[in-house]
Structure to design on (222 residues):
C-alpha cells in the first residue's frame, strides 16, 4: 500500500468539536469528490493507527483539506489529531470511497457524515450544477451543524436541518424517518446519497430503496 508523509499547514476550528486541517498535497495525488483516504499521525506509536477521512478540498487546490470531528474522550486517532499543530505530519494512504456524484438528488447526512458531501457540493457549485440537489442534515444541536453558512449560501432553502436533542424554533426537531422524508421530498425517482452512523445509513438505505423502487438510486458510504 502506497503511503505519503504530508505536513499539516494549518488547523482551524469549524465547530466546537470539528477542526479543519490544511495539509500539504503530495505530488500527483488525486481523488474524486466524495472519496477518502486512511490517515495516521506521524508520531511514535501512531504511524500505523489509521482511520478513514474524507477530502473536503477540490482536486485543483494546491493543498488537501480534511474536516474532522474530534473525540477527545476516546484514546485514538481523532484524539491525536486534536493535539496536532501546524508543522506536524500525517501519513496518507490510498484513495477510496463509495460516494460519487451520479446526478441530482437528495443528500442525507447524520452529524459528521456530511463530510463526504462537502467536496461534492463545492465541485457542483464551481461547475454551476447545484440546481436540483438538496441536503438534509440531522444533528444533535444547532452548534453541531458543520459549515452552516457555506451550505446556506450554496443551497438556500434546499439546505434542511433537523435537530434531535434540541428544540430550536429555527430548525426542525424530528428524526429522519419515512414521515419526515415524505414531507420534505415530493419525487422519489431521483438519486439519494446517505452517510452517517451505521444504524442510520442501514435504516435509510432500506427505506429509500423501497420508496424509490430502485436500489441503484441509493448510494451509501460503506
Amino acid at each position: 500500500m502506497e503511503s505519503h508523509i504530508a505536513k499539516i499547514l494549518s488547523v482551524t476550528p469549524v465547530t466546537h468539536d470539528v477542526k479543519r486541517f490544511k495539509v500539504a498535497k503530495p505530488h500527483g495525488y488525486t481523488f474524486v469528490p466524495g472519496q477518502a483516504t486512511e490517515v495516521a499521525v506521524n508520531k511514535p506509536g501512531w504511524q500505523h493507527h489509521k482511520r478513514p477521512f474524507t477530502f473536503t478540498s477540490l482536486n485543483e487546490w494546491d493543498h488537501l483539506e480534511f474536516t474532522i470531528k474530534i473525540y477527545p474522550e476516546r484514546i485514538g486517532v481523532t484524539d491525536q489529531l486534536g493535539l496536532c499543530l501546524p508543522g506536524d505530519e500525517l501519513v496518507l494512504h490510498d484513495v477510496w470511497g463509495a460516494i460519487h456524484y451520479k446526478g441530482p438528488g437528495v443528500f442525507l447526512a447524520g452529524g459528521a457524515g456530511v463530510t463526504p458531501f462537502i467536496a461534492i457540493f463545492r465541485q457542483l457549485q464551481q461547475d454551476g450544477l447545484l440546481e436540483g440537489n438538496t441536503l438534509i442534515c440531522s444533528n444533535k444541536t444547532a452548534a453541531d451543524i458543520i459549515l452552516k453558512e457555506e451550505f446556506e449560501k450554496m443551497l438556500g432553502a434546499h439546505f434542511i436541518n433537523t435537530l434531535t436533542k434540541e428544540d430550536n424554533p429555527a430548525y426542525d426537531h424530528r428524526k429522519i424517518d419515512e414521515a419526515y422524508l415524505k414531507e420534505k421530498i415530493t419525487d422519489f425517482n431521483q438519486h439519494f446519497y446517505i452517510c452517517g452512523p451505521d444504524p442510520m445509513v442501514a435504516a435509510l438505505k432500506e427505506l429509500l430503496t423501497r420508496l424509490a423502487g430502485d436500489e441503484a438510486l441509493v448510494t451509501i458510504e460503506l
About this structure: The two ends are 20 Å apart (CA to CA). The chain has five helices and eleven strands. The helical segments are 77-83, 115-127, 148-155, 178-184, 198-212.
